Amino acid sequence: MKKHIYCRHSFETEVPFFDVDAMHIVWHGNYVKYLETARCAFLSSIGYDYNEMGRQGYSWPIVQMNLKYIRPAHFGQKIRVDMDIVEIESCLRIDYTIYDAETNEKLTRASTTQAAVSLSDGLMQFQTPDSWLEAVKRHPTFKAV
Question: Where are the transmembrane segments (predicted)?
């Protein structure tokens, strides 16, 4: 069964020198930063960034992350992070593919899962808040199930 994609988002950046090792290859831990930067750009695009999440009474910690390194990224390389938002009702799950922005060569695949946690009592929510659902539905590529 094919997964449903609620919406898609892309983000481009250039690999800075401080993200690479002595061989000018991106250190593996910095890919997490690229995912976070892309996710923040997506959240800003729907008006539901981390500050707004807090105003709505929730934090959204990462509860699961998976990365598969296919090819290394290098200093100065332009990369594109393509995001598929694949779950929005019980959690926020995003599948990512990182590409060389110029050649479209696939570099990394990843996924993250975030769950809403109430700031008032610290309890994880088993259904995402209505404010989140309303925000994500504003994304121009949103497709309902």
Answer: none
Query: Computed from CA positions of residues 129, 133, 139, 142, in that sequence, does the dihedral angle turn out positive or negative?
Result: positive
Contact yes or no for 110/33 (Cβ under 8 A)? no
**String of DSSP letters for the chain:** -PPP--EEEEEEEE--GGGB-TTSBBPTTHHHHHHHHHHHHHHHHTT--HHHHHHTTEE--EEEEEEEE-S--BTT-EEEEEEEEEE-SSSEEEEEEEEETTT--EEEEEEEEE--EETTT-PBPSS--HHHHHHHTTSTT----
pLDDT tens-digit readout, 120-143: 999 999 999 999 999 999 999 999
Kindly report, residue by residue over 33-78, the tens digit of the pLDDT. Answer: 999 999 999 999 999 999 999 999 999 999 999 999 999 999 999 9
Judge if pTM exceeds 0.85: yes
